[in-house]
Design brief:
The chain is built from one helix and five strands. It has about 70 residues and is mostly beta strands.
């Protein structure tokens, strides 16, 4: 098994930021190519490019709990 190291940052009222060496798997278990070492993942559920964030959370008024 490949060992990976990365970090996840929860952005207030925004996406999850993944940094480092990571693998994203879809619901079917297949890898999703991130194309970079830092990606923003949608938390509001409204992004048109899921699982990645497209900034829609700003216009929708998405808020996270403290």
């Amino acid at each position: 098994m490949l060992e990976r190291q990365g970090s996840i940052e929860l952005c207030p009222d925004g996406p999850l930021l993944l940094r480092g060496d990571f693998e994203i798997l879809g619901a079917d278990g297949e890898p999703i190519d991130a194309h970079r070492k830092t990606v923003a993942l949608c938390r509001c559920g409204l992004s048109s490019i899921k699982p990645f964030c497209d900034g829609t959370h700003k216009a929708s008024g998405f808020r996270t709990e403290e």
